[in-house]
Amino acid sequence: MVFTAGQIAGILEGEVEGNPEISVHKLAKIEEGETGSLTFLANPKYTSHIYTTKASVTIVNKDFIPEQQIETTMIKVDDAYESFSKLLQYYNEVKNNKTGIESPVFKAEDAVYGDNFYLGAFAYIGNKVTIGNNVKIYPNAFIGDNVKIDDNVTIFAGARIYSETVIGKNCMIHSGAIIGADGFGYSPNKDGEFIRIPQTGNVVLEDNVDVGAGTTIDRATLGSTLIKKGVKLDNQIQIAHNVEIGENTVIAAQTGIAGSAKIGKNCMIGGQVGIVGHITIGDNVKIQAQSGIGRNIKDNEVLQGSPSLAYGDFNKSYVHFKNLPKIIKQIEKLEKKINGDHNNE
Q1: Which residues are designated catalytic?
Q2: What is the SS3 assignment for 136?
Q3: Which of 70, 113, 157, 305 could form an S-S bond across to 138 if both were Cys, CB 3.0 to 4.6 Å?
């Protein structure tokens, strides 16, 4: 796709300084810009690159004033980083604006879908599925029976959406994600054999939820596994049955959350965090990477370690952890000195 500086300025409500007819067809970092590329300058550390970049167009803040001659055409906006992000979103929308049903696919006769629908080859749509407007389902995706998908949802290639799942507006589900598989529910009988407990609930994703590649969200035993609006899930996360994750919480890769854990809103959870089942984590909690959470957590706590400690306590303790060999030698010297003093008495 090719855009002129003038067209881009129109999208961003910016002002052009330079040639409004110059065109771009790709994006680049400012230090790697080439003819025909679009870049941006937001971090002052990169200011020197605007004088040497070969990028045809550069998005800058309105208060930027060049201190020497530049070759690139500038588009001046209120916030260069925010505007570049907006442009990336616009580019993705244009690039992914596919419509129509490819062949071969399977779509149950009683499945219904809205306007501007795209269904990629080899996809499967089950019975009584309801799909809203502007939904894109890429090749090899599986949508089980009785699934409900609201407007503006994108489901990428190879994702699996099990029966009864409910997906809200503006959600994005990446390749390999599995939503609605059985929870890990077993009970031992008198012979010590583990008997599978039927998982009869579902998964509900509210509006504006993103699910990363390879992430799995299990259906509830009863009721719903609930991912509330605005939640962002990285790749390869495991969310067990009956978990609830509050609004606008973000979780990094390889985190595992055991059954019936409740996580509050606006939390930030780092990579490889482990959270035990049947606990409650409050709002605005920050959990550092590789922490192990085995207790209820109050609002606004910051945690690190396994088992986790308050963030400040962990850092203070770590100073001593790494000095343990030195501390032990000092203790041994003191013991020898004390024993020697006793022997001389």
Answers
A1: 241
A2: strand
A3: 157
